[in-house]
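Protein modeling request. Please complete all fields; requests missing the sequence field cannot be processed.
Requester role: graduate student
Desired output: 3D structure, token encoding
Chains: 1
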Amino acid sequence: MTGAAAGTGRAIAQALARAGARLIVADVDEANGATTAAAVGGTFVRADMTEPDDVRAMVRAAGDDLALLVNNAGGGGHIPPHFPNATFEQWSAWLDLNLRGPMLAAQLAIAAMADGGAVVNIASMAGVEDTPYVSPEYGAAKAGLIRFTTSLAQHGNVRVNCVVPGWIATERDPEAPIAMDTVAQAVIDLATDDGAAGRVTILR
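Delivered output (204 residues):
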């Protein structure tokens, strides 16, 4: 899974490990990523989701046993500058991280899942709201990820689903209404439900 070094990603990795998954922990944060991998009995792979070669290496590291991809890496919605003040390169970087990287990971994972499996994308309420938002490029990318999920739904015997959380409680924002474990459980539910395809689980 991607973006697993800390926070919600680490919570998801821990839940998957408890469910019996053997994990590839992928992140750009090498120190925390290695810590998470050790804690869940997995393998750490440094992967920048904006670098196609990194994404390819991550999927190769999973080998022939790949049965689940969790696209959790993302972010940047709170980091200025934003459209229209950001340059093309700046706002394109957020699209690469939050949409194009997950799409490439899903494309490669689906091709590798000869025996079937599942993809769970982590989007954001920023992609479904219809009010002004500080980071249009982030909102557009997350909206794209949701529609990518529902458009694909199922390819062969690989199911594609999406979790769309609102404000998640973290050490920085402990008063937020959604617990990280709630997001993790939603991922487990979609990953293990053979009838779930193209499903969008919204957490408010």
